Amino acid sequence: MMDISKMRNIGISAHIDSGKTTLTERILYYCDKIHMIHEVKGKDGHGATMDYMELERERGITITSASTNVTWKEHTINIIDTPGHVDFTIEVERSLRVLDGAILVLCSVGGVQSQSITVDRQLRRYNVPFVAFINKLDRTGANPYKVKEQIRDKLGHNAVLVQIPIGLEDKFQGLVDLIQMKALYFEGPNGEEVVEREIPAELRAEAEKRREELIDAASLFSDELAEAFLEGAETESQIYAAIRKGVLTRKLIPVFMGSAYKNKGVQPLLDGVIHYLPNPSEVKNTALDLNDGEKEVELKADPKEPLVALAFKLEEGQYGQLTYIRIYQGMLRKGDELYNPRLRRKFKVGRLIRMHAHEMEDITDAVCGDIVALFGIDCASGDTFCSPGINYSMTSMYIPAPVISLAVFPKDKASADQMAKALGRFTKEDPTFRTYVDPESNQTIIQGMGELHLDVYIERMKREYRAEVETGMPQVAYRETITQRADFDYTHKKQTGGAGQFGRVAGYMEPCEEKEYEFVNMIKGGVIPNEFIPSCDKGFQAARMKGTLIGFPVVNIRCVINDGSTHPVDSSDIAFQQAAIGAFRQAYEKAKPVILEPIMKVTVEGPSEFQGNIFGSLNQRRGIIVSSTEDNNFCRIEAEVPLSEMFGYSTVLRSLTQGKAEFSMEFLKYGRVPNTIAEELKKAYQEKRRKEQK
Amino acid sequence: MVRKELIRRSPLRALEKSLKEPLRKGEIAVVASPKGIGKTGCLVHIATDALLQGKQVIHVSFSTRTDHIISWYEDIFKEVARKLNAAMEVHDEIIRHRVIMSFNQEGVKTQQIIRSLTAMIRDGNFAADQIIVDGYNFYLATTEDLRLIKQFANEVGVMIWFSATVKPENEKIWNRDVPPSLKPFEELIDVIITLGESDGSILVRLVKDRDSYPRKDLSVHLDPKTLMIVEEKK
Fold this sequence. Notes:
The structure holds 2 protein chains of 2 kinds. Chain A is an alpha+beta fold. In chain A, helix 6 crosses helix 7 (223-230), helix 6 (204-219) crosses helix 8 (236-248) and helix 12 packs across helix 13. Chain B is 36% helix and 24% strand. Chain B has a 9-stranded mixed sheet, with helices on both faces. In chain B, a hairpin with a 6-residue loop joins strand 8 (216-222) and strand 9 (229-231).
């Protein structure tokens, strides 16, 4: 059985173009799993092993996270390749959920950029310990010392070098290991031989100085090391242990460096993963006991306990659906029966798979801490699996609501079928991607977290499913809300032969900060019979799905009923639902409704010379500039901008700054639409309705 | 309490009254003290008061962490708005009128600061009334730098509040006088206020008020806990 202390589940988090895919590929190579190194945008048409989707190959970025198993010095490492772009945040976050540690890759020229900051924030949210790797030391302008300072200043981490470079840019030759105090060179055709030599004389003093900094920082985590250091008798294992302690509590970040492309520095980084990142038993994980009022229970990394596993990733392969799971507790054998609490259904584990970069290996069992895949299981990503007899659910992942939607039209019948298949697939894979058919226009609408997010799925439909689709204009997910309390007293009465309908509800609606919707029943003396109370709730919910201002859902509203009347014969479920809908419409106008729009947190980075242009472009987009930070000739601007104004911003920004600035954005909050724009939206909505009625 | 009332009762009115006349656009004021006395809190209080009056403020700082400055504003707003009606709405409104610009002190020249401020005001369409410059290094500045700033303040029509850190070893000398590090710029600065610790309370002294040198302790203090200006307890 696998030794848990020799297991690592790590992610590689990075900004696009920091060379993450190349690094991942080299790691696979050195772990002796693949035999030829392909470049990311290789001429041989093979592409890097992890980067297997066609689309990704074309863009040179990695979008889908795949888990890959490798072995390094008797340790088994599962690498979850996390996407770098912010538009795919949910993918990153879902991966982070199952990681125990990470490598934060930074470019030695670009340093800490806006997306590095986003990724760092995600690591923080999930409390993931990590080490840093400064890549591309062979590039012109490489400066690992500056990047290390940026990790301290911009990300606020206690970063400390564990290596220094021997030469830089085109003279980059190797590294000095500050713990072993040895120079490391990477020889052989692909740098597979790590050769230790004496530290070059001219680097001796620098290495001594940096080593002292390192030990000073590490000593804070180990009295033993501090004392040994005073006597000049510190040992390598003391230093490793002290740094490890710092890393596990996220209070110390060891900084590695190299050039994955030039085959330098990858093996020491792998040693670092083993030395410093936690094994699965060192990370606390919890689940909710559904049999005990969702009480939080701590999971034990013990193979003898009942099984608890999380399905974090679904993939459609050639042979059917592949479900990636992380086992948190217990042990899983081929043929075991498992329980899915969400579906309340048991299923049998037919095939158990370990995934290597592009090939799979059938295995018979797996223990807690491991990441494996199952074949042909019906589930959604985020589902929990457990041994029959327990009813646990892993804490639900934080899933933001979609902020943008787009109508999609298949070009022909064949495409329509393929599109339906693709959408079914995507919604299972990605909880932030949703789809529905608009009952009024009969159009298929897709929803997601940003323009690029939806673009990627449209492209995947075309490539993987051969579905030819056209798209409408992107639509912002507006909301409506009320700003003051308003009373209602509405009677629904209908007598047109046969059974009549009668129901009267009275009460009020008011703003409710904490919840999207709340229903409060304050009926006394049974003036509305108990059986019809849920009907009122249903009626309000139906009415709130479509506000009367612009037809978007009404949020942050509380509906309270405190009076009503009933008819012994004519009152029914339907009658009270209708009464509630009528009551809602009656009070809604009086409650001074307003329109809300999604506001994005936008970060723009670029050379200071374009600052004025950037300020101007944000101002034109109704943006509020929150802050701007200038560092040498580089500026970072943070602003809050309505999503509706951000369409096409990447093109505008590119032309304003000669392509030298970039931006990232994420959903921040819903904010009130200014009056003039609200009027336009209302007018457009009225017009649309008039057209539809004709 | 409504906003008007809150503004009227602010201890900053007492500070204003101690001056011959309130600060005008184009004027420069400096709050000087040794490190750690509470200049940032004091300036953020002054900025928050201006924001409440509907003015627009640019806060210039020389630390790379803008989130620290934002939390200063959050804390001081919470303190100020404790008795305010509809405080959240006011909060949401005033943060639209505040922008933080931070510079790396080593790399930045006064001309560049002015260039960036101009970009924010012109291109960013941000009609600043007041600029707060926290942590400007007067030891490294030249009179030419200050002259440029004064000229900028006049052209754009803003008032500028600086904070200046003075080295504590000079404390005795500058106690009630213009701090030595500000001497070279005396002509260009309209109002100079110093903060000094005495028996656990922080005194606010008016050293220079345009063409006069009152050198007197004011009736306001700096609260050692919140680092905001408070009126003397009678």
